[in-house]
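Q: C-alpha cells for this one, please.
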Amino acid sequence: MTADDGRESMSISLSIREFLVAVAASLGFLAGLGSENISLVWVLRLLLGGVIAAPIAPWLVRPIPPRVAGTTVGGLIILTNARSLLRSDWIDASDGVRYGFHLAIAVVWPAALTYTVREYRLHRDEDRSAVAEAEDRAAAVAS
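A: Here is the predicted structure, written as C-alpha cells:
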C-alpha cells in the first residue's frame, strides 16, 4: 500500500468490500438451499465447476468485445429470468402470454446483438486509435 495519495489502499478496501459482499451473498444462498430440498452434493459439484471455470473464462472471452459479450449475456439472462418469472406463482402467466414474451425476446435479442456487432465493427478503428493515443499520453506523462 502507498502512503502518498491512498489510491492503492482505497482499491484494496474496495476489493475487500466486494469480497465480503460475495461471501455474504453466497452464505445467504447456501442457507436458503436448506429449505428447498436441494442435494448438497449437486451444490458442491456446481461450486467445483465454478472454481475450475473462473480462471479459464476470462481467457476464453478475451477476444469478444465487451459490448457484444454484454448484449449476449444480457439477452440470455433476460430469457431465463422471463421464463422463471412468467411461470412463478407471483405472475402465473397463461401460455399465450408466455409464448408472446418468448417470441418478443427471440426477435429483439438477435436484433440487439446484430446492432451491437455492427456498431462495434463500425467504430473498431476509432476505438483502437483512441486507446493508442491515451497510451501514448500516459507514456509521455510517465517519462
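A few notes: The chain has a mean pLDDT of 84. The longest helix spans residues 95-142.
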